[in-house]
Design goal:
Blueprint lengths: L9 E7 L7 H12 L3 E7 L5 H10 L4 E4 L13 E2 L1 H6 L4 E5 L2 E5 L2 H11 L8 E5 L3 H13 L3 E6 L5 H14 L3 E6 L3 H9 L3 E4 L25 E4 L8 H8 L3 E3 L2 H16 L5 H8 L4
Parallel strand pairs: 1-2, 1-3, 4-6, 7-8, 7-10, 8-9, 10-11, 11-12
Antiparallel strand pairs: 3-5, 5-6
The structure holds nicotinamide-adenine-dinucleotide.
């Protein structure tokens, strides 16, 4: 008889839509099993039509916690009791912790990105970086980088619905952190080239490079890059985006979004269980190539 799920097993949830393709259940259930912890992590189809009821159910069923993904990261905030300072700055949550009926929202995407750099031996503290993208992933990276001690940051976004968000993020970080942040239009390629030339790292936090934009990059030629530049991409499928391929061929150190995904999960896991995810084991299980 299976003893994996018992009457004492604690539930962890992932509420999003669409979500059935997610690797998070495999990651969290493997980590829990590996550490002998009695948790089960399950996906639920939740969008704005049933989010309020789903969060009320977390309270009613005393669910220990969970993750939120699109389209719930912003909408969920109104149903929670507390929001962490980082999530407050991001205006979004991806993790809920239920402490005896008090639901607190956290954001771990930016932590995941910064830990993935550290894990790869890349040091950006006290230095200048350029981040392209001011959507959910971009803002999480920008907030955490500024909080962790990046000295200077240039944010770029094209003129779309995220443009004003980028301007607002730069203003907020200049006011609330010690990081000097500038915002530019992604259409200004001369400025993009100059800011990259002045940075130790270029981060892509847009969906350019991923289906349906697979094979594309906004960097017009390898002359924008140089061998001592680190280039990262939040995208992990494909494993090597057009940007990372161009960067690798230009001699740059490159890093895809697998680490960000793993370490945001590890940070959530720690919030729920108090335990560190077994990172080497998880890397092997997720088929990491770095
Ligand atoms: P979002 O919808 O919030 O933001 C989209 C961003 O892409 C915006 O900055 C937008 O301006 C930009 N963009 C879209 N089309 C563009 C184009 N044609 N040219 C230039 N810019 C364009 O999405 P998000 O949640 O921030 O996700 C962005 C990327 O980050 C996605 O590829 C996602 O898979 C990835 N991501 C990875 C992780 C991880 O753990 N590795 C976590 C979150 C998101």
């Amino acid at each position: 008889m299976s003893e994996r799920i018992t009457g004492h097993t604690e539930l962890l949830t992932l509420m999003a839509y669409p979500i059935r393709h997610s690797k998070s259940p495999a990651m969290h259930n493997e980590a829990a099993a590996c550490l002998g912890l009695d948790y089960a992590y399950l996906c639920f189809d939740v969008d704005q039509s049933n989010l309020k009821e789903a969060i009320a159910a977390m309270r009613a069923l005393k669910v220990r916690g969970g993750n939120l993904s699109m389209p719930n990261k912003i909408a969920a905030m109104q149903y929670l009791d507390r929001i962490s300072p980082e999530a407050q700055m991001c205006g979004a949550v991806n993790t809920i912790v239920n402490d005896d009926g008090v639901l607190t929202g956290y954001i771990t995407d930016g932590i995941g990105y910064m830990r993935s750099l550290k894990d790869a031996g890349i040091d950006v503290i006290g230095k200048k970086i350029t981040v392209v993208g001011a959507g959910g992933a971009g803002k999480a990276i920008e907030v955490q980088a500024a909080l962790d001690g990046v000295k200077e940051m240039s944010i770029f976004n094209r003129r779309d619905e995220f443009h004003q968000r980028g301007i607002d993020t730069a203003a907020m970080l200049n006011e609330q952190t010690g990081c000097k942040v500038s915002f530019y239009d992604l259409e200004d390629l001369d400025r993009l080239k100059a800011e990259i030339a002045d940075s130790c790292l270029l981060a892509n936090a847009t969906c350019v490079g991923m289906n349906p934009l697979e094979g594309r990059t906004y960097i017009p030629d390898p002359g924008f890059l140089r061998p001592d530049l680190v280039v990262t991409d939040a995208i992990y499928a494909p494993e090597e985006t057009a940007l990372l391929k161009m960067a690798r061929e230009a001699g740059c150190r490159t890093l895809n979004g697998q680490g960000m995904m793993l370490f945001q999960g590890a940070a959530s896991f720690k919030l729920w269980t108090g335990m560190d995810m077994p990172i080497p084991h998880m890397k092997e299980m997720l088929g990491f190539r770095w």
